[in-house]
Amino acid sequence: MDYLYSPLGHKSIKPSAVNDLTAGFATGFRENTDINLGVGYVNDKTIPVEAIRKAYDYIMCHPQKYRNALNYGSAEGSPNLRQSVYNYYCSNKLGGLSEDDFRGRKIIIGANGATSLLDAFSDLIQPGIVVTSDPFYYIYTETLQNKGFTILPVEEDSQGIVPEKIAEALANIDISNLSFFYIVTVNNPSTILLSNSRRAEIIEIAARLSTKAGRKIPIIFDKAYEDIIHNTGLEKPVSGLKYDTEGIAFEIGTLSKIIAPALRIGYMICPDNQMAKLLVQRTSDIGFSAPLINQEIASWLIDNFLQQQRDIVNAGYQKKATFIKNLINGHLKPYIERYSGGDAAFYFYLTLKNIPVGPGSKFFKFLSRTTGNAEIDGLPEKKPRLVYIPGTICSKGPNAGCQLRLSYGFEEEAVFRKVFSLLAEACKYALE
Ligand SMILES: Cc1ncc(COP(=O)(O)O)c(C=O)c1O
Description:
Largest sheet: 8 strands, mixed
Oligomer: single chain
CATH architecture of the largest domain: 3-Layer(aba) Sandwich
Number of helices: 16
Mean pLDDT: 95
Structural class: alpha/beta
Strand order of the largest sheet: 2-9-8-7-6-3-4-5
Shape: globular
Strand content: 15-25%
Bound molecules: pyridoxal-5'-phosphate
């Protein structure tokens, strides 16, 4: 006897591709032996523990400003936090935004990070086609698919998603089926920064299609990693909102990468319209608000500490990225066709030369110690295992089978020496 599941329930029965893939590693994962470069964890050392403690103390001592901080909050988000986000954007001209750009727009706080705002959006738009770049953020695309959306991944180059390829991909599609555009501005997994001219072009495409369809076709700019662009030589990103005159652009940010994922603070800057009201309603429906104390802590941190925090975090990631680039060049040169990464966020996305890396491949078996050869796998104690995200999970492109994402957020530099020796050994084994 089973339950009568909803369509989403039915779809969710199948474990996500990543859960499926890592299940084998998760059982018996050995701290300090096995290495997990599959997860998107930030580096623990970047989390400002002392500042968070100070923020908490300050909030408890100033109940006039931080009212009822341990009680329920309002679904739009804490007025303090929304004001702090506004001040931070305007005083730093973040994304080129100023007071004028916030007129007719709203800042709302998600129930549980950027993820909950993305999820809310997908509850409110009629399922159809979602245009995104290839490679794509597999966690959200999988959610969308479970909710009945169809993903249309469009090739990216060194400037992000390619507008001409969007036109090609949409040429044979009935636009009445087009739901929205989902664009990650520092793409996960490739970490390619969407150029400003591309932002303008994509908005123009969505605006043109909206006119043709006779309804608004929204575009979400997910800027989860824009706070951690650590190569200072890159073009300063201009917010997609700057180019939007039609009320179709929604920008989503998060404090997860720059402060702490556990705060679960994500926000959206969007047109102050019916859609904003519905998004707030979804927050109310699923949890009333993000925990108010976390919102107040976030507000205090933005007001008092964020600038300093950004500098420390970005210097740390840039140093680590340079260190890893040297390891890539030192260990993988003969096996690698190209890679992206090292300028922003904390991923490298590698394309190997004709070496498949997906589940079932020799490369994968070597690193999961499932070759069946005791000398390679280790007996009885397995040799160190390495988890990564294979390209087949986040791309439909022709090279997906030979691509992989490595996360360098969490693990320390010393671990990466071991990582690249293992990767080189796995390549050698795959070619034998
Ligand atoms: C592109 C992208 N968007 C959103 C998120 C999730 O953000 P949050 O922690 O605020 O839910 C992530 C996390 O890895 C991400 O990579």
